[in-house]
Amino acid sequence: MSGGSVMSGVQGVQEMSVAVAFAGMKRAVDVVFRAGCPDCRANFELGASALRLAIGATSKTTFYSFTCPECGVAVRKPAGERIVELLTGGGVRTLRLHSAG
Ligand SMILES: [Zn+2]
Fold first, then answer.
1. Domain range holding 18?
2. What is the reported pTM?
């Protein structure tokens, strides 16, 4: 038994179902958002239920908040238009601060 004969031949064609690749793309239920804690500098992923979005009258009073799972501090960060879109699209609870009218 000397060496091994390398076969550079055609391998049997395996049938790959494309459907498998899309199987998990029904609905984005468990969306996670990446966030960082300014206090302990931890980076983590939060589910939509762990985040709160507060929309004020202006972009300056629009922010999202969450509790750091590492140190437990309440973090509040300004939310730009894109973040608002992202969070609301991901099912984050939204609170409107400005009274209508
Ligand atoms: Zn922290």
1. 1-30
2. 0.66
